[in-house]
Amino acid sequence: MAGTSLTVLRRVRAMVGPDAAVDTDTAGTPRVAPRTEEACALILQTAASEGWRVSLAGAQTWVTPEAGADLVLSTTGLSRVVSVAPGDLVATVEAGVRWDDLRRELADAGAWVAVDPPGVGRTAGSVVATGTAGPLRSGLGGVREQILGLTLITGEGRVVRAGGRVVKNVAGFDLTKLASGSFGAFGVITTIHLRLRAVPRADRTFVLSADRDQAVQAALAVLDAGLLPAALEVLSPSAARRPSWTLAVRLVGNAEAVEALGRAVAGAVTGPLEELSVEPAREFWTGLAAGCTAGPVTLRVGVLAAALDDALDLLAHHLDDTWVAASPGAGALRWNGTAVVDRLRLFRHAAAQRELPVTLERGPADVRGRMGIFGAYREGVGLLVGNLRQSFDPAGILAVPLSAAE
Questions:
Q1: Architecture of domain 202-284
Q2: 197-198 and 159-163: which strand pairing?
Q3: pTM of the model
Q4: For residue range 288-316, what is the model confidence (pLDDT) as tens digits?
């Protein structure tokens, strides 16, 4: 281990004592998992004054820490479900809580959060920081719509509390949305106030097997009819784990409303819808969530429903369409696979010409460093984000490669 790493490791151990777990990761980089917000703030204050480069991490099942960091700050020590209040429709959790554990605890209280993030073993902080919503974003909104407030510790160790614990509280609204989906560029999220819903009485899944064009047209027909299912996905055979392209529809709510919406969806599409029973439906959606980590790179593309066919053609031309999950109702599609950086950058450039933003949701550290998470999409955006980062992280210690220039 390099002398600098040893120095950082000793300093952190002496500084936080029992308020954090301190070790090294597989690359020999010092890693600290603070158990309190105060310890987290102290670590970042010290890092800013010492000029340590800090990489933020959760469970590391979605992405690995950035290369070349002096210290990895993990949220796994902040793992409490602080409170669950189904009557107030809010839960407060620390960022290191595993999403699957949270889902089970909420279910015991008759509540749920309308977020089905891709991946396996994710932490709540990772889901919020990356803004990685799953199929439920179509009808129930993305990650940001499920967040009432949060606590963010900036790159200089300031503790900022945005939003609140009640549904009608809008104080700090902009900062809450800014932190959600920022990939940790403005600081580490430590506590989250989540919007709850009652567990739906009915939850039904329908699938339609077709070729790609038919699946896209069926999805557009559902939207054109003014229908908004909880999930509306156009899936490649690999993503659906079925022999053909698939339109997948999920309906949740009270039994009468779901029954009526199911009839309306069946009337809007051409072709027979197959309803999956409870266990196959659960396996279908969990398999879709896990599938987008089969390859090393996952992209998210913003695309209007009317342009979905063109976006899929562009993707197939520059990369491939082996694993694709498109949510036309949410204006997005997700791609997973393997590709060299030059091809990924070429696809992003071609997409930008069509006003399609491409986010590198996950990938190896070297790919993130060379490509950037967001890249250049529109002129002036980079300057705006840079100014925001300067406000929250003036010493520039947070290792978050939003653009390839960093």
A1: 2-Layer Sandwich (3.30)
A2: unpaired
A3: 0.93
A4: 999 999 999 999 999 999 999 999 999 99
